[in-house]
Specification:
The chain has 145 residues and is mainly α. It contains six helices and two strands, in the order αααβαααβ.
Length: 145
């Protein structure tokens, strides 16, 4: 198993991936009118539709990229990858999907700031593998590429 990935690189890779996917999500929100800034006239149906579209795109991107190589674009650019904890191989399709769902679903439908802070704290405190809840659920670890 390669050495564990640096927490700073993991965070920066996550930010890069978030920006890469937020652009098409934002454009789709704008195009279909699901992005709303007027709090007096919120259409909850549109808001939920926008969250569902965002969930599909964020989860789909992360699943598609990690199941094949263990790397999203951000991880590839920063030299880290996701590996199965038991053997160091690229994640299976189901492990990649579980990991993506556990990370993104609470973020998109519930409490984004709290969820991300909780995962970050777990990354810093978890010994010996620095796993977040999404890593624990999928039995994965982030290592250097």
């Amino acid at each position: 198993m390669p050495p564990l990935g640096d927490v700073g690189k993991r965070l920066l890779a996550r930010i890069i991936d978030f920006i890469l996917i937020s652009i098409p999500v934002g454009l789709l929100d704008w195009a279909f009118g699901t992005f709303q800034t007027d709090t007096d006239d919120i259409n909850y149906g549109r808001s939920i539709l926008g969250s569902c579209v965002a969930a599909v795109l964020y989860i789909g991107y992360e699943w598609w990229m990690t199941r094949a190589t263990g790397q999203t674009l951000g991880k590839k650019w920063l030299g880290v990858r996701i590996a199965m904890l038991d053997n160091g191989a690229a994640p299976t399709s189901s492990a990649a999907l579980i990991r993506a769902c556990v990370f993104w679903l609470p973020t998109l439908f519930c409490c984004p700031c709290l969820w991300i802070v909780l995962i970050g704290i777990l990354l810093l405190l978890d010994k010996p593998y620095r796993q977040g809840l999404h890593d624990k659920a999928a039995k994965t670890v982030v290592v250097t590429a």
